[in-house]
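With this grant's support, we have settled on a layout for protein records. An illustrative entry appears below exactly as we store it:
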Amino acid sequence: MAQTSPQRLIETTQRWLDDFETAVRTSDEATLAALFEPNAHWRDLLALSWDVQTVSGRDAIVAALKQAVPDSQPRRFIVAPDRTPPRLVTRAGTEVIEAIFSFETDTGRNSGILRFKDEAERPQAWTFHTVLDEIAGHEESIGQARPTGEVYSRDFSGPNWLDRRTATLAYEDRDPTVLIVGAGQAGLSAAARLSHLGIDTLIVDRETRLGDNWRNRYHALALHNQVHVNHLPYMPFPPNWPSYIPKDKIANWFEAYAESLELNVWTGTEFLGGDYDDAQDQWSVELQRADGTRRTMQPKHIVMATGVSGIPHLPDIPSLGEFKGTVIHTADYQDAREWTGRNVLVLGTGNSGHDIAQDLQSRGAHVTMIQRSPTTIVSVEPSAQIPYALYDEGPSLEDCDLIVTAMPLELTKQSHRLITAQVKELDKELLDGLARVGFKTDFGDDDTGWQFKYLERGGGYYFNVGCSDLIADGSIGLLQFDEIDAFTADGVRLHAGESVPADLIVLATGFKGQDVLVHQLFGNKVADRVGPIWGFNSELQELNSMWTRTGQPGLWFIAGSFAQCRIYSKALGLQIKACDAGLLKSRDTKIYN
């Protein structure tokens, strides 16, 4: 595509937006169809449909818009004047014009992304993305709308801010509207969004101290993607922070974040489960506090923020019971120092298995990894950072987040196939070295790489921060699981007759999905209403049950990376606010019943 002037890009985009607005206002299906390519994609985050969904194909888009427009009444489409201007970019290997626009509906203020493959007089949209930014009359209490009122007044004869804050946190005379289970990045992001929308929200977490879900993990842990991708809502990390944030720094930030944003958090509190009253549209849940006392609460909504997978997976491994040494899951691993000079087997070759093996080896343990299935290996730099290149290109964090969400599933897959091709070249020397020692690698389904392994199954990959090099040069040993004849009292016996000694076996065997936890906490009826959690719903082209209404009224899920939690916590908060305001039913009857 030839270079063209910024003003021409603005004019081309605005002309399309004008034609689109006229077509939807007049119900002109022929004109509407002509505005989209035959294989176009429309991704909507609540703006027109109140759904998180992707629609692919011109005919399907026209039909979906015809259904959504009467309720939403979209209007005043303009190229957003205060956002990144329209520009030529490459997305999923295709050069396009990419433009940010804004518009209004009866619900509120919205934004979106439009992409064309050419700058023709009447271009056709390749992708069309619409996002609800705020609900009219229910705006966030930030900036010019920052909170005022009694709690912040100078009342010399009455309770001050701290007195009121302490009373608010105690919940002695009320129950929260929303109860969030889990105080990691997902729970904190969701609580921040909800509290700024005026929704009374309480987070409960069984850890003793806020941030312990990071603080208590193994000694050397740090994030594998860089700091500028990982900000939480409203309160970015300080500019002097390191590129890769250490676990204890994250943990301490969580405490500062919750305090600064006045989030209500009960630590040392176990969520024991709950029942839903369909007639009253509310839950009855049991909480157990650190002192052993119990509290029953009746929230309207529960948000499960316990992670993509939270229950350790302990597979039935034949003969493992014969081993007389120590067996732990990665969830229970903290420090390598007590294993210096001793023999350790690490069963599993995902991120946790590799990081723990390297931690142990660095402390002088004699480590052998046992591989059960092929693993996607990606060097942490530069390969693992390629998907986040957008965040280095200059647009604001807000614009980058919008651009990222504007990529529909099929085009995101294409992007990651192209990234995988780059990674194969960048990491060729490392991958060849692993192959020479018998380490089995793959590149995910249809070469979509590590990120789709994460989105589909939550694991099966490793960002190399040195452990792969240690395997390739023999500093860390390697066995294939099918080489093992049996576990013995002091290690493993191989089919070839050799014995490999062990004092410790670390099970890096992953975690069970949230669906298991839902069965345990809420029972089969609720679990059946919800259906699958995580992984893709092929019809909606979205993750199952995540940050959207489910088949169970008042039960919501949020999980994922810092960026996912930052981005999609807003969609979750807006939906709960809409339910609370009577604008939306809390149950999505379209998906699972």
User: Anything to note?
Assistant: DSSP finds 16 helices and 29 strands in the chain. The mean pLDDT is 93. The first strand starts at residue 36 and ends at 45.
